């Protein structure tokens, strides 16, 4: 069979070659010179059309209507992922740090100390602990000292219990205080103008209770803010003087965009009884206002309506205007105030200022007819703050202290009937260079122009306070304080003054200069460990015996130290 196929194939190619030869006509060409190659010219008679055998033709045409899609079967899965562009630097993902163990906080402490001048100190503070919604605790303090003079000793005890609860919309807080001050009328004249061999003992007892409810801050521009507080106290001394007081305060404020409409009011009711004096001293104050706050400007304009009733009865209306203008945010701010008020005097306030008062003190209210204050405040950068202001006040019935004619070691309270003018300058600076060094300083300069008195008795023109805190390291720290007071004037009677006292009689008065003083103290603390620390303090290092009031010397140089335990 193979031979037959070979013979047929050979015959086919020979036939094809014969046909191609017969399709061409040959023409003779001239020979080239030099017997070189002869080229033939072939003339094509007709185009060549090859003929394929039936054996190599397709037996059938493809079916063009067959559109069935071929689907390959995969044995792997495809992941749907977004194409990441790596042209930018990828953000580093912070690695989670293991949670640190919280530090142990000590909410309570006990402190005790002893020192020279029979100094005794005891303190205790207790708190329930870390709770953002509830705080409660108590505080106790005892401090006592004795000087070299006969009866030159005093002691003070204070006990306080407090609590605060923070609700969703408001805050409740309250406290109860008890305070006792014990002392002697040890005043004596170094020039032996009078003798005080057996100083009388004095003691003040003060019990106070207070409760308050206040709304929490909300950024809602139409929110209504409110607060209400009630405060009451009972006060007494060793000579059967008694005083009680109840004060109710209320506050409402409605925000309307940049405006605030508000009302502040108070009811003060007080009763004072002494051996021969009984005074009912009540006040009602109503202060409606409107406040504008926008673009660094804050203006509060309103009136202060005050009604006195009880032993005194009079209605007064005062302006109540404050303004703040921010020139450079956080760095410079201007402020001003124009107001008036009635200040209710009481035995509690007077004895806090001068504890050596005699009995049968007359009680009058002090009227602040008009008061203007203007100044600047702000910061000079991190850790630096300042404030400076000038104020002018016109005061009616300003209370003053004078030595009693029969017993110069005790003081009477008189009033400068008329209008006393006060011009003052106050400046305050706070500098914190770092967490280890902080200094604060304050200065007051005041000039009184009395209404009917010769001088404003025991009112110094210059007072300076300064405090410095320096932490050497985490364990050792130092603190220093300076108190400076300028000279003041005192009045002595040469004869028995009129009773009741109304106007001064200069024929029976003499003016005495009360020297100023500088009190410099220095302290240090050392932290032994997280729970124990030690402290020392030295007071009146310059050993200055000058006191604030005539015939009353200060305790000289003294020092004490002790231990604090935290738990």
Oligomer: single chain
What is the general shape? Answer: elongated
- List low-pLDDT spans: 16-36
Q: What Rg do the Cα atoms give?
A: 50 Å
Helix- and strand-based class? mainly beta
Portion in beta strands: over 45%
Please give the largest β-sheet.
22 strands, antiparallel, barrel
| Mean pLDDT level | 87
* Measured distance between first and last alpha carbons: 118 Å
Element-by-element helix/strand order:
HEEEEEEEEEEEEEEEHEEEEEEEEEEE
- Kindly state the number of beta strands: 26
Helix content: under 10%
Q: Given the structure, what is the number of helices?
A: 2
Describe the structure in your own words.
With 567 residues, the protein is mostly beta strands. Mean pLDDT is 87; it is low at 16-36. The strands form three sheets. It has a 22-stranded antiparallel β-barrel. The chain has a two-stranded antiparallel ribbon with strand order 1-2. The chain is 5% helix and 56% strand. It is elongated, with a radius of gyration of 50 Å. The chain starts with a helix and ends with a strand.
Structural key phrases:
26 strands, 22-stranded antiparallel β-barrel, single chain, 5% helix, 567 residues, two-stranded antiparallel ribbon, mainly beta
Strands, helices and their partners?
Elements: H1 2-22, E1 24-27, E2 41-44, E3 109-115, E4 119-127, E5 134-146, E6 153-166, E7 170-184, E8 201-215, E9 224-237, E10 242-256, E11 259-273, E12 278-294, E13 297-310, E14 314-328, E15 332-343, H2 347-353, E16 366-381, E17 384-403, E18 411-434, E19 437-449, E20 462-471, E21 476-485, E22 488-493, E23 509-514, E24 517-527, E25 532-539, E26 558-566
Antiparallel strand pairs: 1-2, 3-4, 3-26, 4-5, 5-6, 6-7, 7-8, 8-9, 9-10, 10-11, 11-12, 12-13, 13-14, 14-15, 15-16, 16-17, 17-18, 18-19, 19-20, 20-21, 21-24, 22-23, 24-25, 25-26
């Amino acid at each position: 069979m193979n031979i037959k196929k070979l013979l047929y194939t050979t015959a086919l190619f020979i036939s094809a070659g014969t046909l191609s030869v017969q399709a061409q006509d040959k023409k003779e060409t001239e020979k080239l010179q030099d017997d070189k190659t002869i080229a033939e010219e072939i003339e094509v008679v007709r185009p060549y059309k090859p003929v394929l055998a039936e054996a190599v033709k397709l037996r059938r045409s493809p079916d063009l209507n067959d559109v069935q899609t071929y689907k390959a079967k995969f044995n792997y899965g495809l992941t749907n992922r977004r194409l990441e562009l790596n042209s930018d630097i990828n953000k580093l993902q912070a690695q989670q740090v293991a949670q640190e163990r919280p530090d142990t906080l000590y909410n309570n402490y006990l402190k005790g100390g002893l020192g020279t001048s029979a100094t005794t100190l005891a303190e205790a503070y207790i708190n329930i602990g870390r709770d953002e919604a509830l705080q409660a605790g108590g505080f106790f303090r005892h401090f006592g000292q004795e000087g070299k003079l006969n009866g030159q000793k005093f002691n003070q005890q204070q006990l306080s219990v407090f609590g605060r609860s923070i609700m969703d919309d408001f805050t409740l807080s309250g406290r109860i205080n008890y305070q006792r001050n014990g002392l002697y009328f040890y005043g004596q004249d170094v020039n032996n103008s009078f003798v005080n061999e057996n100083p009388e003992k004095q003691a003040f007892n003060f019990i106070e209770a207070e409760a308050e409810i206040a709304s929490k801050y909300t950024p809602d521009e139409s929110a209504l803010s409110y607060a209400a507080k009630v405060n009451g106290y009972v006060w007494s001394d060793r000579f059967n003087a008694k005083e009680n007081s109840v004060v109710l305060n209320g506050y409402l404020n409605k925000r309307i965009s940049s405006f605030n409409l508000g009302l502040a009011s108070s009811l003060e009711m007080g009763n004072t009884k002494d051996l021969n004096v009984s005074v009912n001293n009540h006040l009602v104050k109503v202060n409606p206002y409107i406040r504008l706050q926008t673009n660094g400007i804050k203006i509060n304009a309103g009136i202060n309506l005050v009604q006195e009733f009880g032993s005194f009865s009079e209605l007064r209306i005062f302006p109540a205007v404050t303004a703040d203008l921010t020139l450079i945010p956080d760095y410079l701010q201007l402020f001003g105030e124009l107001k008036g008020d009635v200040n209710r005097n009481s035995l509690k306030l007077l004895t806090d200022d001068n504890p050596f008062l005699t009995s049968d003190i007359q009680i009058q209210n002090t009227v602040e007819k008009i008061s203007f204050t203007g100044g600047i405040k702000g910061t000079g950068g991190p850790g630096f703050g300042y404030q400076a202001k000038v104020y002018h006040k016109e005061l009616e019935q300003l209370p003053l202290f004078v030595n009693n004619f029969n017993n110069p070691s005790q003081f009477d309270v008189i009033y400068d009937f008329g209008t006393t003018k006060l011009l003052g300058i106050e400046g305050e600076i706070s500098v914190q260079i770092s967490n280890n060094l902080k200094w604060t300083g304050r200065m007051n300069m005041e000039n009184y122009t009395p209404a009917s008195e010769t001088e404003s008795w025991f009112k110094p023109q210059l007072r300076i306070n300064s405090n410095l805190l320096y932490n050497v390291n985490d364990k050792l720290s130092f603190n220093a304080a300076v108190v400076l007071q300028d000279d003041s004037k005192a009045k002595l009677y040469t004869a028995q003054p009129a009773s009741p006292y109304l106007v001064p009689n200069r024929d029976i008065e003499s003016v005495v200069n009360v020297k100023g003083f500088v009190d410099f103290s220095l302290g240090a603390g050392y932290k032994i460990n997280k729970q124990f620390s030690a402290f020392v303090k030295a007071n009146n290092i310059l050993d200055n015996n000058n006191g604030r009031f005539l015939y009353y010397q200060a305790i000289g140089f003294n020092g004490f130290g002790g231990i604090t335990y935290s738990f």
